Amino acid sequence: MKPLFIVNEYAGKGKTKQRWSNIQRHLDMLAIPYQVHFTTRPREAVEVAKRAALYECSHVIAVGGDGTVNEVVNGLCGQQAVFGVIPTGTGNDFARMLDIPDDPFFAVKKLVNGSEKKIDLLELNGKFIAGAIGIGFDGAIAEDMNRSSWKKRFGAFGYVLSMLKILRTFYPFTLYLDLDEKSFMIDKCWMVAVGNSCFYGGGMKICPDAKHDDGLLDVCIVHDLSRTGILKAFPSVFSGRHVQHPNVIYMRGQEVHVRTEPSVYIHGDGEIFGQTPGEIVIHPHALNVIC
Ligand SMILES: Nc1ncnc2c1ncn2[C@@H]1O[C@H](COP(=O)(O)OP(=O)(O)OP(=O)(O)O)[C@@H](O)[C@H]1O
């Protein structure tokens, strides 16, 4: 039973093609037999991972960034095969969550010597997300980044550029949020983040206490801040200290329903999943991974 590598050569600003030759060299050096599929278009990885059982593979490894991880996870969820990742993308937050190194040699070694564990997954309106979901200001930033060439040109720094652009035009919204049995109505809301992992946007700790195997989702709400206030608070998201800010609410639960007035964008691990409303549920121990 050979592992199947699903490679997105376009991930990491197109550098994955070069990185894959390195990875292949390391696999051959360690005498690891494998099968490989190169994606030819967006979302193809979902279909390939769905057919993993036909390939008779014990492991399915995504070679790419968080978008590729998301597609493979959505195809693989509910199957026996174990999921792994070799990070070659721009943000690589999933690999960061599992402590998988960027260096291809050490990432391959980790795949070979790593142990298996089960991790939780978020489900948003029927789709699975391994890392974190952003609603509102952050969804608008992700939408802008995916449309512009900034991510390709500037990598993770493209997030900051899109943030500065969206900050000028974004208007806070009214949030109606149900978390398990509790209901909240929050005016002048900027964003809601729901995290399975603490990392997102290339290393930002938006939900700093989120753990990917505790059966809980973490919710972070930013509200009632001026544009200058957002700018001042932004750097603290890299350390996770933003949760101490008086205009940040931080909670934990199992199921979140979000409605907003007006509708705002939702992203999951950087990919746009439409607009609000959104229903988010945590699925404890839903995916077998090597870490
Ligand atoms: N052959 C292809 N041609 C064009 N796009 C593709 C192809 N295969 C996959 N994709 C798309 O490439 C997009 C970007 O891939 P991915 O997210 O893995 O890399 P990244 O954006 O560099 O990394 P990260 O998400 O970690 O910042 C995904 O949304 C995926 O659907």
Automatic annotation (TrEMBL):
GO molecular function terms attached to this record: ATP binding; kinase activity; metal ion binding
Any one Gene Ontology cellular component term annotated for this protein: plasma membrane
GO biological process: phospholipid biosynthetic process
Cross-referenced Gene3D superfamilies: 2.60.200.40, Probable inorganic polyphosphate/atp-NAD kinase, domain 1
Pfam families hit by this protein: DAGK_cat, YegS_C
Superkingdom of the source species: Bacteria
Keyword vocabulary terms for this entry: ATP-binding, Kinase, Lipid biosynthesis, Lipid metabolism, Magnesium, Metal-binding, Nucleotide-binding, Phospholipid biosynthesis, Phospholipid metabolism, Transferase
Keyword check for Translocase: no
Domain called DAGKc: residue spans: 1-128
UniProt cross-references to SMART domains, sorted A to Z: DAGKc
Cofactor(s) recorded in Swiss-Prot or TrEMBL: Mg(2+)
Family designation: Belongs to the diacylglycerol/lipid kinase family.
Designated name of the protein: Diacylglycerol kinase
